[in-house]
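On to our target:
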Amino acid sequence: MGGQACILYGAAEFSRDVDVAVAVSPANLRRLRAALAQLDAEPVFFPPLSPTALRRGHACHFRCRAPGLHGVRLDVMAAFRGAAPFHRLWARRRRIRLPGVGTVSVMALADLVTIKKTQRDKDWPMIRRLVEADLADRSRPPLPARVAFWLRECRTPDLLRTLVRRYPVAAAKVARERPAVRAALRSDVARIEQELHREQARERALDRRYWAPLRRELQTWRRSRP
């Protein structure tokens, strides 16, 4: 669901971290702990792995020490701001076959873009690259849901103008909820850029508000440790 997923979607990003989303159930957490043992993964940072921490939206961090993986960090999460619950994320996951590895389950592109809308500077260029990589992918037809995704998430003014010209009916529908698309229909580049900036500022503010109580909770947990 993180940098490795971005690589698989063609938005190249070097990453030695592996971010995974997991279902929180007793049986699945037993499987997760067994996998961590095989990776000789030690917990780093805080909090420790627990159903409570995962359900609240915290990330649990590990460092792998197994041969060939030494130093690789593994971040585990189960809940995300603005995203669907895990069972829905899993139902619409994409499965990608990698030579010599097998089939890997990757968070659906639209869900990956959703969880990338954070307060971190590095995530916003990645959203742009993810959408642009999907636009350049000719292996799948531009079905209505895919076109709507491009119109909702494209962050490149010139591409957005191209999209509204190419798909005017779909653009008119998305424009009802996205001011940047309304500006693109008028070919108003300055207004497109202004609306994209507003979108980003709004999402950054929402992300800060989301994480503020979680950070306070972490501090409380740290102080209460024996």
User: Anything to note?
Assistant: The radius of gyration is 19 Å. Residues 189-224 form the longest helix (36 residues).
